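ok so i was messing around last nite and threw this chain in just to see what happens. nothing serious, just curious
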Amino acid sequence: MSTTTRSAPPPGTQDPPPPLARPAPRSGWRRTLRRDWQLYSLAVLPLLFFLVFRYLPMIGNVIAFRRFEPGGSMFGEEWVGLRYVRMFLTDPTFWQVFRNTLWLGGLTLVFCFPIPIVLALLLNEVRRRSLKRFVQSVSYLPHFLSIVIVAGLTLQMLATDGPVNHALGWFGHDPIRFIQEPEWFRTIYVGSEIWQTAGWGTILYLAALTTIDEDLYEAARIDGAGRWQQIWHVTLPGIRPTMITLLILNVGTFMAVGFEKVLLLYNPLTYPTADVISTYVYRAGVESSSFSYAAAIGLFEAVIGLVLITSANQLSRRTVGTSLW
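result:
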């Protein structure tokens, strides 16, 4: 039995080894920008908005440490350091408005944050499409009303000769001066906030509910879970990331209690419970022309908001694993 042997090719005649495959060059940001410039152009106006109305005005915070006079230098006349900070820290009126801000911010967070969740869960259980759409439309409508209209409606409804006092008169109750009595202001403010924002706040939660897998509900029913148990063990964990994100955002705006609504609803008689930091800054800066003093208070409020949102984000990341950054 013969075997054939293949002789080796003479030196210098071997085929060269195939070249190593090189990774395709990554497209740089210039190439990406040229390719998708239409999409990036959509971000130009929002970026300009934040640059002009959010970041550039931060330069004006320097007058919190300089003496500013109307008509003088835009960045103040002379450096005064922490003079205006010490002024509002020793001002009893400031601590009164600070407490009012905490009260209104806390009540708004406690009541206005969970109500959209509850409303979204209730709407999710409605099976009749017509009823569900009607409730959604009615609850969304107040969001599209301006704050001026909402405040006007509130003042008219709660006036001494308004519909609410007329209804109380049918039961033999004397008219209540809701607008003039300080103890009623927080209830009025929080109630109007719930009426205006609860329906609109359900949109994100209803969208999050549609992402929950129906197989999870089927498995829960097989395990004998009732409707409330399904909501507790399936629905709420499914929308937890959305809840945490909105909670962090709400905590970040905790100190920024609605300036426009408070300004439209309050009056000198309700200052003890209605005057908040934003309205106090308005009166000090615009009405009294104490711009440096108002800037120092506004900067103090912004620092507190930054600390709150950062702390809430870190706490959320460590406890539930969900955060904004």
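not much to say yet. The CA atoms of residues 219 and 225 lie 9 Å apart.
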